[in-house]
Each structure stands twice: as structure tokens, then as C-alpha cells.
Amino acid sequence: MNDSVDTIVRPAKTDRIPYWRIVLRGPSQLCFQSNELTGLFFLLAVVVVSPIAAAYLLVAAIIAPAGRMLLEQRAPTLATGLPGLNPCLIALSLPAFFHTGWTNFDMWMVLLVCVASAVVLVRLFVVVLPFPILVLPFLIIFWILYALAPQFDVLQPIAFAAPPPTTFHPVTAVLSSLGEALFSPSIWTGLLFVTGVLLSNWRHGLIAIFGAAIGTAVSYYYHDADPASANLGLYGFNGVLTAVSVFVFCGGKLRLAILGALLATILTPVVAAFGVQTLSAPFVFTTWLMLGLGWVEDHWFAVQRAPDSPAAIPSKSEATTQPVYH
After folding, report:
1. Alpha-carbon distance 252 to 258, whole Å?
2. What is the arithmetic mean of pLDDT over 86-101?
3. Residue 205 belongs to what H/E stretch?
4. Is 119 within 8 Å of 64 (Cβ atoms)?
């Protein structure tokens, strides 16, 4: 939905969208939106915590569509901003997990290589895989990068100190979970993030809040989830992404979005047990699981009803109010 944007700038046809609008739609896809205002709010949200991360994000958002154009990407896909999803994620992860700096030119080169790799991997996976790839290219690139860090001096992982003991703060935890979706946990980042989503689609904004609340509540009762980690949003952010993605990809069902947020939070310590950075993996695996279960339900458990059965005949309101998702 771009109604909020169209009130400010002139609407453009899909094949004639200005490049700067495509660039801003890239960051908005970090929560499955296609809205320039949302992308701008996400960029501002990152600036609050890390200006250099925002610079990395902007560079990735600018380069990604151009790279996809070189690979002969069609205009409709470019117009959504989807080419920027994985490159923008890898750009945000670099300052979050590695030492960077404005004059650290080696890390700027790493950024360019990672963005180019993400563009190529996305194009390859879209051709090969018959299901939504989501942020799989980002996960592969980051895990390889982190594994190679000991072999390259340029890659210096940040040593995270254990957070000091504290009490559980639900509001802080929920807002930080929203901000953590941009690898920038803070109250202000969370507020800017959810505002950006609400401007694009109010339903998605509410579902993001639900996902953050569910992920935070579930993680708080895990035996290995301490209040400090919950307050930082380290558990709840996968609930945010999963709730919105399941709602988008699984037919706009609120109950499935809530279930997805629950499952993603449960999977968080499971993924960590494999010795890798968890990142957004629980959200990816949970979304795939929900899509797979939907396929099984449609193909193996679909109930054949008689044509004149009341259950097989939708009511007038159902027939006219079902949302359409593309």
C-alpha cells in the first residue's frame, strides 16, 4: 500500500518509477513493505543507534537495484523494492557484528562484495528454488563471513559483553524487539520502525507489535532467557518478522501469524544450539514450515464437500470481503 506516499509525491507507473523511490523501497522490504516513507523511517531508525550502519544501509539500497538491472530483472519486481531486501540486511549486519569505521576502507570493500554476492545469490535462488527464498542469501553470506573471520584481519568480530543483571521491562523489551529487526535495538528505533510499518499497512503494523509482544512473553519464560536479553529484543525480533511474513505469505490469517511468532521464538535457542549466529534463521525456517504445512493441508487433507453443502457455499459477505494478496 502506497497511499501515504501518493499523498506526498505523484503516483508513478510500475515501469516508470524513479530510481530514488526504488532505493527507498528496498529498506522497507525489511518488514515486507513496498513504501518509500517506510524505507525512510527505517533509515532514520538505524541512524538513531548507528550512523555508520545507516550509511551502509543506504549504500546497499542504492547498489542493489542497479545490480538487479544488470541481471535483466523485470520492472515489476524492481518496483517492489525486493532486490534491496537481502543486500540491506547484510549491510546492517556488518556494523552490528564486526568492527567498522568511516575510514576503514577494507570494510567498505567487504560491504560492496557482500552486496554484490547477495544480488547474485538472490537471482540464482529465485530461478532454482520453487518457494520464497526470504532472507536465505543473507544468512548464507553472513555465516560464511563469520566462519572466515579468523582467517582475515579485516574481519574483526565484536566481542559482546554479558549484559548486566536487570529486571524485566516489558515495554522496553517489545520496542527493542521491533528495533532489533533492523539490528538496532532501542526504544526510539522500535517506535520509528513500527511507525514506518503503520504508514504502509496498519494491519502489518499491528501484527508486528503482536509478534514482538508474543516473542518477548514466550522468551521471558524460557529457562535460558534472562531479563537483560529479553529487554534487548534478542528473542522477540524473530517474532516480529515471522508474524508479518506469515501473514503476508500465508493468506492474511491472523491466527497463523500468531502461531508463527510462537514457533519462531521457540526455534531461537534451537538454532543457536548448532553453534551459529541465530540472526533471522528462526523466522525463515518458521515461514517455510507454515508454507509447507499449508501445501500438505491443501494436497493431502483437503475435505471434498458436496456442491450444495452449506459449508461449501460462501456467504455474500465472505465472497465480497476476502482480501487479495499478490
Report:
1. 11
2. 95
3. helix 202-220
4. yes
For residue range 222-252, list pLDDT tens digits in order: 655 577 777 888 878 899 999 999 999 988 8
Q: Cell numbers 500465508 label which residue?
A: 250
Closest CA to 202 of 22, 8, 10, 38: 38
Residue appearing with cell numbers 465472505: 318
Q: What is d(CA 126, CA 130) in angstroms, rounded to the nearest whole number?
A: 8
How far is residue 139's CA from residue 21's CA, in Å, rounded to a whole number? 26
In single-letter form, the type of residue at position 129 comes to L
CA 154 to chain CA centroid, Å, is 27
List for the chain the helix, strand, coil content (%; round to 5): 70, 0, 30
pLDDT in tens, 166-219: 777 889 889 999 999 999 989 999 999 999 999 999 999 999 999 999 988 887
Alpha-carbon distances of 254 from 98, 112, 243, 244, rounded to whole Å: 37, 38, 8, 9
